[in-house]
Write a structure and sequence with these properties.
Serine Threonine Protein Phosphatase 5, Tetratricopeptide repeat, 2 domains, mainly alpha, two-stranded antiparallel sheet, elongated
């Protein structure tokens, strides 16, 4: 099974490998260089070499989560599904505030049909950081993202996370409010979704045409959709 990797290595591998090895000769604990070298070896089919590089990140005091992800990719390349899932779970459990790594783990689990594990990987972050609005919002959004994987969608689980993130940020972060509106809409709470989206549009008009990365035109279009859905529901 061919999967994309969390890390990317640019340029010709013949040019890049010597430079990575030179860095590691000087700085054996350089995590980025080690992970990138392992990815390069894996992409060439040298999985034993890739594993050897990644395991050095697990032998010392560090327990580098990206090493677990890389090892999981090697196992998946060889069809070792269950072994890979265990490694992916370890990577997720050690991801901390690394949203990119967590997203890579969840995406990989979804690709191999392990949706429940993907959801658990995301929700584990919310349990570990219950007062971090960015992580709560990240997890909630993953569970309702309209253009994301629908296999993982679960508005009922997303909604309390989105509400908590809004509460912590005191309704000042429009991107977090947007997640709440989307979660409400996905959960069928149309009237409240309209109220929250109206609040977003109002704040965008007060502060300019784009705030929190949300263009006013997109916010207004979402408000129209929510109102139409509410009207269609006969409320």
């Amino acid at each position: 099974m061919k999967l994309a990797s969390y890390q990317s290595t640019e340029g010709n591998s013949e040019d890049t490998e010597p430079s990575l090895r030179a860095v590691l000769d000087l700085l054996p604990g350089h995590v980025e260089a080690r992970v990138n070298l392992a990815q390069m070896l894996r992409q060439r089919g040298e999985r034993d070499g890739a594993r050897a590089q990644l395991k050095t990140l697990l032998d010392g005091e560090t327990d580098e989560p990206r090493a677990y992800l890389g090892l999981a990719f090697c196992d998946l390349d060889e069809g070792k599904m269950q072994e890979a899932v265990v490694l992916l779970q370890r990577a997720a459990g050690r991801a901390g505030r690394d949203s990119g790594l967590r997203a890579a783990v969840a995406s990989t689990l979804i690709q191999i049909g392990r949706v429940d594990e993907a959801r658990k990987a995301l929700e584990g972050a919310a349990r570990s950081f219950p007062d971090d609005p960015m992580i709560l919002n990240e997890v909630a959004w993953s569970l309702v993202d309209p253009v994301g994987s629908k296999a993982i969608h679960d508005a009922a689980r997303a909604l309390p996370l989105a509400r908590r993130a809004v509460e912590i940020t005191r309704r000042k972060d429009l991107a977090i409010l947007d997640t709440l509106a989307v979660a409400l809409f996905a959960h069928g709470e149309l009237e409240e979704a309209v109220k929250v989206q109206t609040e977003i549009v109002s704040k965008l008009k007060e502060g300019g045409h784009s705030s929190g990365g949300i263009p006013l035109s997109e916010a207004e279009a979402a408000l129209v959709r929510y109102r139409e859905a509410l009207d269609g529901a006969g409320r």
